[in-house]
């Protein structure tokens, strides 16, 4: 009830099955903490070709738009728009390693007017007396 874990087991690079398989996890904690765990990374991530698809590691906000494909009327082309990216240094990703992201404080943590107005957050947060919320 406090963590959601997704695991990828024995994932192979297309056309490079001989290098071995990757096994890794993403754990989303109810506290907002995110942990990427890397169990098996058979080759350095920097050596993975980005010719077919970009090689990225980290977090980002994004949204996807499905557009009709001009070449094939029945199909759709998806476009992903990405913003607010936090990238990991892929040279640090190795077998038996982990990376942890801890959320910064936000207005969501305040449970009272006193906590809100005395916080040291760097953005303009204010308490609403009508709603009894930040």
From TrEMBL:
Keyword Amino-acid biosynthesis attached: no
Q: Which GO terms describe its cellular component?
A: membrane
Per the record, the major location class is membrane
Entry-linked InterPro entries: PLXDC
Record's subcellular location:
Membrane
- In what way does this protein cross or attach to the membrane? Single-pass type I membrane protein
Sorted keywords for this record are: Membrane, Signal, Transmembrane, Transmembrane helix
The UniProt similarity line reads: Belongs to the plexin family.
Q: What is this protein called?
A: PLDX1 protein
- Organism for this UniProt entry: Myiagra hebetior
């Amino acid at each position: 009830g406090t963590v959601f874990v997704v695991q990828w087991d024995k994932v192979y690079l297309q056309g490079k099955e001989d290098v071995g398989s990757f096994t890794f996890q993403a754990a989303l904690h109810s506290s907002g903490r995110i942990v990427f765990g890397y169990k098996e990374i058979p080759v350095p991530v920097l050596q993975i070709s980005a010719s077919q698809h970009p090689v990225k590691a980290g977090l980002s906000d994004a949204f996807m738009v499905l557009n009709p494909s001009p070449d094939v009327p029945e199909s759709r082309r998806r476009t992903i728009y990405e913003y607010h990216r936090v990238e990991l240094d892929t040279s640090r990703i190795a077998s038996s390693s982990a990376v942890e992201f801890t959320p910064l404080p936000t207005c969501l943590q305040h449970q009272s007017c006193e906590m809100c107005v005395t916080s040291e957050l760097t953005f303009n947060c204010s308490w609403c007396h009508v709603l009894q919320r930040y």
